[in-house]
Amino acid sequence: xxxxxxxxxxxxxxxxxxxxxxxxxxxxxxxxxxxxxxxxxxxxxxxxxxxxxxxxxxxxxxxxxxxxxxxxxxxxxxxxxxxxxxxxxxxxxxxxxxxxxxxxxxxxxxxxxxxxxxxxxxxxxxxxxxxxxxxxxxxxxxxxxxxxx
Length: 149
Prior knowledge:
Blueprint: H1 10-26, H2 43-72, H3 86-106, H4 108-111, H5 117-139
């Protein structure tokens, strides 16, 4: 991940400032450049990854615990009977979900395939509005500024 403070060199910053100043002289608009480390946190993709890990944990624990239980409780009444304790299955699913979302939260590249382009665009727009609102309102509080819902 790039550090947003060191993304541009001092030469690039001065060239960008000159270009923006020149462009703003020719238009009535204001140009705001925002460089940030990330556009946001993509909770949905973390949840999807957590769900997948939870299902895998459920399957592994179900078959593994069922095999252990069948070996422990084997008798002539239960020879062909597959036993399972639903509490262990539910616990495995929840624990797998929590582990998966935590892993995806600490390693965003894992959850990246589950992020849609539309969600990325919406998050970039939200973050840019947030940055513009914060900077513009602090710079000149008398002027109206864009409010982010």
